[in-house]
Amino acid sequence: MNYSESVQYLYSLGNEVLTAKLGLDRISALLEALGNPHRAGRWIHVAGTNGKGSTSAMIEAGLRATGIRTGLYISPHLAEPTERIQIAGLPVSREQFAVAFARVHETAERMLASGALDMHPTYFETVTAMAFVLFAAEKVHTAVLEVGLGGRLDATNVVAPELCVITPIDFDHQMFLGDTIEQIAAEKAGILKPGVPAVFAEQRPEAERVLRAHARGPYTFSRDWAITDLALDARGSRFCLRGVPVTCPLAGEHQVENARVAALALTELGVSPEGIAATRWPARLEHVSEQPEILIDGAHNPAGVRALVAYIRRFYVGRRRIWIVYGALRDKAVAEMASMLFPLADRLIVTAPANARAMPPEDIPAPGARITYSIAEAIGLLDDAGPEDAVFITGSLYLAGEARALLVK
Fold first, then answer.
1. 231 near 28, Cβ under 8 Å?
2. Exposure of 64 in the CB half-sphere (CA atoms within 13 A)
3. Domain map of the chain by residue range?
4. Which of 53, 137, 151, 273 can bridge 47 by disulfide, Cβ–Cβ 3.0-4.6 Å?
5. Residue 368: which residues within 8 A CB-CB, separation 6 or more?
6. Domain 286-407 falls under CATH 3.40.50.12710
């Protein structure tokens, strides 16, 4: 199969969240048939609710800055599935992606025919196996793996990691992980391994209790390393940890904690946090235009929206006229997020990502908003924004990816 056919087949497996089949038996059997590529590398395993992608990207940047050949596995992607598997700071090529897909898919088909598998691996299982295959083939020295969903039964939880990292835990994916913070935290803590050190971000008290109870090796909470000399602006932050300077190029006060966790992880690995300054993490408070100032942020759950609201209040309320362009998926807490975000808007446009699960824009609780049915249509209305205005495009990573494809050359 070529790249387009590979992607089409992956999408035919269904939405990676709604069709998730949590458990390690299938991915373990598949990887064994592939020669156990997940046993070949050094792994940093990152779980959490919010910030795990940013933290993973910062850890990878710090490792790569020392000359280590790195891998990074993330989800979801913004524009192309190739973004999920990165080597030495770059997404794999379409050709690499297609070759890895063919190997994993053909192996799965043989196993299905022999009865060694109960069903074709899911979208996420397939791409996870592809990542392991590519990391082994490309002789990656150290790879950072972002958990897809939960942790205990996530397909990435087949590795023997050198370090485990858990970012802030909050409510999300309750249908899979449980209705309480304690239940969700227990699922995230499932990545912890005997004797393997761990770094934990600042947590809710109930989540912290669960992490302490589930810890199976030495661990550090980020608050044990006090932040000093903090300088925060709309484009990032600078601070010190025990006299060591850290520069975070990602915007938002919440990224200070993510950068602290990444710096502690790198320190645990014997690496300077200096390389964090080179991190790139698209569509997370990403500035894509100056006049008007346009920022794209994939805030898709209440915790993410709280961080976005804090950022807007700190740097923009009372200084700029604020536009918000919002579109979300039906299975998200849209009413809760809208109640926090929309009161900040001087101008509000609601729209929908090009996704079967998109909430119809007329169903979004936004009295007085302009209604559009595509991000392209919504962006067309920004011609009325003045050069001193600030525009925030948010609500869904799918929407963020579409907007970025239109606005970033």
1. no
2. 22
3. 3-278, 286-407
4. 151
5. 348
6. no
What is the residue type of 252? Answer: G
- Own/partner pairs, 64-70, CB within 8 angstroms, 24+ separation: 64/88, 64/89, 64/275, 64/278, 65/272, 65/274, 65/275, 65/278, 66/271, 66/272, 66/275, 68/141, 68/142, 69/138, 69/139, 69/140, 69/141, 69/142, 70/140, 70/141, 70/142, 70/143, 70/144
**Helix/strand/coil for 227:** strand
Angle at 237 between CA 235 and CA 238, to 5 degrees: 145
Report d(CA 74, CA 118) in Å as an integer: 26
In angstroms, the CA 117 to CA 304 distance is 38
- The 10s digit of each residue's pLDDT in 235-285 is 999 999 999 999 999 999 999 999 999 999 999 999 999 999 999 999 999
Strands, sheet with 286-290, edge to edge from the N-terminal-most edge strand:
286-290, 293-297, 390-394, 322-326, 347-350, 370-371
Give the model confidence (pLDDT) of 106-156 as tens digits. Answer: 999 999 999 999 999 999 999 999 999 999 999 999 999 999 999 999 999
What DSSP letter does each residue of 251-320 carry, written as one string?
A: -STHHHHHHHHHHHHHHHTT--GGGGGG---TTSSEEEEETTEEEEE---SHHHHHHHHHHHHHHTTTTS
Question: Residue with structure tokens 């090796």?
Answer: 217
User: Under CATH, domain 3-278 is a member of which superfamily?
Assistant: Mur-like, catalytic domain (3.40.1190.10)
Q: In the Cβ-directed half-sphere of 288, how many Cα atoms lie within 13 Å?
A: 23
DSSP per-residue letters across 175-217:
HHH-SSHHHHHHHHGGG--TT--EEE----HHHHHHHHHH--S
pLDDT tens per residue, range 27-49: 999 999 999 999 988 999 999 99
